[in-house]
Amino acid sequence: MTLLAPSMQTYFTNRLIGQRRASPNTIAAYRHTFGLLLRFTTDQTGVPPSELDIAQLDAPLIASFLDHLQTQRGNTIATRNNRLAAIHSLFAYLALHHPEHADTIARVLAIPAKRTERNLLTYLTDPEVDALLAACDQAIWTGRRDHAMLALTIQTGLRISELIALNCQDITLGTGANVHTTGKGRKTRRTPLIPTIRAVLTAWIAERAGDPAEPLFPTRTGTRLSRDAVEHRLAIHLQTATATCPSLKTKHITMHTLRHTAAMRLLLAGNDITVIALWLGHEQISTTSIYLHADMTHKQKAIDRTQPINAKPGRYRPTDTLLAFLEAL
Questions:
Q1: Which member of 68, 98, 184, 189 is catalytic?
Q2: 147 is catalytic
Q3: Is the pLDDT of residue 134 over 80?
Q4: How is domain 126-303 classified at the architecture level of CATH?
Q5: How far apart, in whole angstroms, are the C-alpha atoms of residue 88 and residue 162?
Q6: 172-182: per-residue pLDDT in tens?
Q7: Of residues 145, 233, 259, 260, which has the active-site annotation?
Q8: Annotation says 291 is catalytic
Q9: Where are the domains of the chain?
C-alpha cells in the first residue's frame, strides 16, 4: 500500500470526521468525488486505486479528470468546481503531512475554478403559489401531508434536507410558534410561523399523531421521506396546478424554488437583506444578495430616484490618432 491510500483514509477519519465534524452530506459528496477520481486514474494508468501514489495524481491528470467530468459525464461547471474543491481540500491536507510531494501538491492546488454564469433565480408569484397548494388533494392523506409540507416550505424557506429531517418535536405551536431546524454547518435556527401555517400544521400534527422523535412528514409506512420522493410529489402537484396556472409551465421548479419564493416574499414585503439572511440560515450576506438581482422593483425604484443626465447627444470622437486607433478596436 502506497502513501495515497492511508493518507486518504486518515483524511476522512481524522480531518473530515474527527476535526471538522463534516456533515453526512459533505462526507458523501467527497466520497463520490474521490471514487470518480480513483476510477478515472486507474483507467488512465492501469494502476489499482490501492497502489496509486501521490505523485501519480499530478496536475495534468487532475485537469484531465475535470475535463472528463464535463465532456464525458455531462457535469455542469458548478459540479466541476465542487469536485475541484474536494480535491483541493485533500491536497491541502497532504501538503501538511507529505512535504516531499510539495511540488506536485502545489501544482494541483494552483488549478483554478472555472468561472460560470449565474442565471437569475426562479421563484413563484402569489397566484402560482395558490395554484400549487390548491393542487394538493386534501381529501386524501398524502394530499394533506403534501399541502402542509409545501406550505411550510414556502413560508419558512427550509432547505429540502432540513424539511425531510424534521421531527414532530421540532414544531412549536403555542406562544411564539416556530420550527426548529439544523442547517448547513450544523447551525440551528428557529423560524417563526405565521397564523395560517400554524393552523395548517396544527391540523396535520393532530392527524399525524406521531411520537416526538418520529418524522413530521412520513411515508405511508411511517419512514422518513427521501429527497427524490419529495421532488416527485412536487412534480405531481405542479402537473395538476398548470391546468389553472399556465405560467408554471414556463418555469423549472424544484423544492429549492420554494426556498427562493420564501426569500422573495420577504424581500418584496420590505425586509432588509440581513433579516432574510438570518431567516434562510445564510452564513454570508453575499449569498443572499442574489435576491436583490432578481427583484425588478428595487431596480425600478433606483431608476426613479436617479436624476436625468443633462448630456448632449452624439458620439465621442477622439482628437488624437492613437486614441482613435484604440477607440476603433
A1: 184
A2: no
A3: yes
A4: Orthogonal Bundle (1.10)
A5: 28
A6: 998 899 999 98
A7: 259
A8: yes
A9: 4-109, 126-303
